[in-house]
Amino acid sequence: MRFFRDLLLAALVTGVVLLLAELSLVLAGVKYQGSFFTSEPERGYAFRPYARAWFEDEGDNLVTINSDGMDDKEWSIARPPGVVRIAVIGSSEVAAEQVQREQKFQAVMERRIASALNRPRNSIEVLNFGVGGYNLPQEYLTLQHQVWKYQPQIVILGTTSMALVRSDRKLATDVIPGTPFYDCVNGHLVAERPALPAKNASGLRIRNAVANVVNRSRILLALNEARINGAKLLAHYKQKLSKRPSSAPGQEALAMTDEVYNPDNPVFENAWRVEDCFFRAMKEECGRHGAEFWVVVFDREKSINPNAEERQAYARKVGVASLFLTDERMAKQAEDAGINTLMLGPDMLKYAEAKQEALHGFFNTPFNTGHWNAEGHKAAGQLISAALLLRSQVLRDLPRTTASLQDK
Amino acid sequence: MSFTSVDFLFFLAIAAFLFRLIPARWPAAYILVASYIFYCASSPRGAIAIALATVFTFASALWSQRLKGSSRATLIVVSSIVLLVAYLMFFKLIVFVPHEGVTSWIVPLGVSYYSFKLISYLLDVYWGKMEAAKRFVPFAAYVAFFPQIVAGPIQRSEDFLSQIGNAGTILPGILRIAWGLAKKLIIADHLAPAVNYVFGHATSIHGGWWIGFYIWPLQLYADFSALTDIAIGAGRLFGVEGPENFNRPFTATTISDYWRRWHMSLTNWLGDYVFTPLRMATRNAGNAGLVASLTINMIAIGLWHGITWGYFLFGVVHALFLSVDALSQRARKRLSKKHPQWEPARDVLGWLLTFHLVCLALVFFRASTVSDALYLIGHAWTHLTFLSDVVQPFGSNSGRIFAIGLACYGLLELCERYRPDRWLAHARVAGPRYLRWSLYASTVLVLAIGFALLLASSGGPKNPFVYAVF
Question: pTM (2 decimals)?
Answer without folding.
Answer: 0.73
